[in-house]
Design a protein that fits this description.
The chain is mainly alpha-helical. Helix content is 55%, strand content 0%. The protein has three helices and no strands. It has helices at residues 17-39, 52-61, 67-85. The longest helix has 23 residues, at 17-39. The protein is extended, with a radius of gyration of 17 Å. The two termini are 26 Å apart.
């Protein structure tokens, strides 16, 4: 995080493939955990090595669960800054 400003390891990291695979697996396991909890009214456990404590610990690091959503939000924020800088803002939303 100190080096890159985030903990979003690229899916196909050339420098640490094992970590990239582990990160991808955590995201997959989180989806299983979420689906199980929805199916069991919030009390389920998934066929997953991931549990709420591990999710909390990853969240504390700033772990990105939904990469596409995070990328979209980054681009949207960049667009807002660009529009503000160029005087193109048409709303007062911040």
């Amino acid at each position: 995080k100190a080096k890159h400003g985030h903990v979003n390891v690229p899916q196909y990291s050339k420098t640490d493939r094992a970590l990239a695979l582990w990160v991808r697996n955590q995201r997959t396991q989180k989806k299983y955990l979420d689906r199980s909890q929805v199916a069991k009214g919030g009390k389920g456990t998934a066929k997953s090595g991931l549990n709420e404590e591990r999710v909390r610990r990853l969240d504390e690091l700033g772990f990105v669960w939904e990469v596409n959503e995070a990328t979209w939000m980054e681009r949207f924020e960049s667009l807002k800054e660009y529009a503000k800088k160029e005087g193109m803002m048409t709303t007062t939303e911040e």
